[in-house]
Write a structure and sequence with these properties.
9-stranded parallel β-sheet, 9 strands, globular, Ala_racemase_N, pyridoxal phosphate binding
Length: about 280
């Protein structure tokens, strides 16, 4: 990696951290209760390594094939003891087994069939020593009712409750909370206010603290205002992504192998899941 690229990442990270701190202060919240998830889709393992040196420990990917290669490459370069990998893209059920072998967290779970597939895959990984803790899963809700973009309609509360209950009862999974993306062209403040209402409704049914995965490069302030505990930031950290998916490791300016997942403490899909 060039010195120039590492300096670019350092400056961008400082700017994002300042935005996050400002948003937390404006909302009367502690900044350390909000996770900064660096979305590294389409960017090389070297960028992950550089961001890790700068203090990032959570990284998001949205394509299983790219992610599994990158996780293995990063593990070979610096190990994986204090890195948590998040799957933020839509997950095909036939990819559940692979995802369960490299991801600590899945953000876009929106069907009972996918819950069952991930539960089976995570339980199998646990049985074979490929992970040591259940897979954290977020229930994705759709804020405009367009489920073709992912998520259960936010007004379909019975279905959301059914999905959350299935996650809570699955032995291979840990129900982490809710995730959503504002509709295209929507006012982020209004969208996240509606998400916060739904999060509070669901939270009332569970004793554990449920997280809220919301906010990206362009709207993280509004998300933090309305209770986000995880912002998914790609572009503001790493710059514009290449127009096409790389075959191997991308050339831009810019599996964790089968080593067991879960040795760390707990504390963007081709479509809308970008940062």
């Amino acid at each position: 990696m060039s010195v120039e690229r590492e300096q670019q990442l350092a400056v961008a990270l400082a700017e994002v951290r300042a935005r996050l701190a400002g948003a937390a202060a404006a909302a009367g919240r502690a900044v350390d209760e909000i996770e900064l998830l660096a979305v590294t889709k389409f960017f090389p393992a070297d960028d992950v390594v550089a961001l890790h040196r700068l203090g990032c420990h959570a990284f998001g990917e949205s394509r299983d094939q790219e992610a599994s290669r990158k996780v293995a490459e990063v593990a070979a370069l610096i190990g994986s003891a204090d890195i948590r990998w998040h799957m933020v893209g839509r997950i095909q059920r036939n990819k559940a087994r692979s995802v369960a072998q490299w991801a600590h967290v899945a953000h876009s779970v929106d069907s009972l069939k996918l819950v069952h597939a991930l539960d089976r895959a995570a339980a199998e990984a646990l049985d074979h020593g490929l992970r040591t803790v259940p897979l954290d899963v977020f229930a994705q809700v759709s804020l405009d009712g367009d489920e073709s973009r992912g998520g259960v309609d936010v007004d379909a509360t019975a279905r959301i409750d059914e999905l959350c209950a299935a996650m809570e009862q699955a032995p291979g999974l840990r129900f982490a909370g809710l995730m959503a993306i504002p509709p295209i062209g929507a006012d982020p403040d209004s969208a996240f206010a509606r998400l916060q209402q739904e999060h509070q409704r669901v939270q009332s049914k569970y004793p554990q603290r449920l997280e809220l995965s919301a906010g990206m490069s362009g709207d993280l302030e509004a998300a933090v205002k309305h209770g986000s505990t995880c912002v998914r930031v790609g572009t503001a950290l790493l710059g514009s992504r290449p127009l096409t998916s790389p075959a191997v490791t991308p050339v831009t300016r810019s599996p964790q192998t089968t080593e067991s997942l879960g040795s760390t403490d707990k504390t963007e899909s081709s479509s809308p899941h970008k940062g």
